[in-house]
Amino acid sequence: MDVGDKYGRLTYEGPAPRRNGRPMGIFICSCGSTVVRNTENVRYGNTRSCGCLKREATTERNYRHGMSKSREYSIWTFMIQRCYNPKTRSFKYYGAIGVDVCDAWKNSFEAFFNDMGPAPEGTSLERVNGKLGYCKSNCIWADDITQANNKSSNIVVEYLGRKQTLKQWAREVGLQYSALYYRWQRGWEAEKMLTTPSVKFRKNEL
């Protein structure tokens, strides 16, 4: 490899210190970036740019679908950002604790849209299992109530063979959530908690 030789978008400028025993070289990319790359990868065509070629291909692929201004595209973008961009405010709740995106969705909006389809009005992307990442088998379009019921902080109560959150039971049996929560805190059994009529007692509902 001689100075001035071109390989794809890279022009060889000279050798660089070996890295992990592998030969490295200094290259100038046609986009203007100077990078150090494995000379063998460059020589055999495995590396053809500083990385701009892949970025351009991804951008072209994502915009080719004509949905760059759609709500689904915004949702996909925010999903990627909160999982992989440490500068994003919500990264600490996602990427920082290991929440990731499957390779198919990470690399292609089209794959994401083909799997999930259009987002119904009033819904957003929700993981069914909050301990797992974003992928077709773990995601749904969920409304606000579904998302609220899926939070790990919810209190789940089993009664008559059914498991529901305390808020769901409150709506079903017609009792105030505050009353059920008061009873739950005091260790009431499910049947007693859900079937005892509410009465006013000072400032608390029992």
Q: How would you characterize the overall build of this protein?
A:
Helices cover 36% and strands 22% of the residues. By secondary structure, the chain is of the alpha+beta class. A four-stranded antiparallel β-sheet has the order 1-2-3-4. The protein starts with 5 loop residues before the first strand and ends with a strand.
Residue windows where pLDDT falls under 50 for at least 5 positions: 201-206
Report the sheet-strand fraction: 15-25%
Kindly state the percentage of residues in helix.
Answer: 25-40%
Rg, nearest Å: 27 Å
Count up the helices: 9
Strand segment tally: 10
Strand neighbour order, sheet with most strands:
1-2-3-4
- What structural class do you assign from the helix and strand content? alpha+beta
Mean pLDDT rating: 82
Biggest sheet overview: 4 strands, antiparallel
Shape: elongated
The SSE string, one letter per element, is EEEEHHHHHEEHEEHHHEE
The rounded distance between the terminal residues' Cα atoms is 83 Å
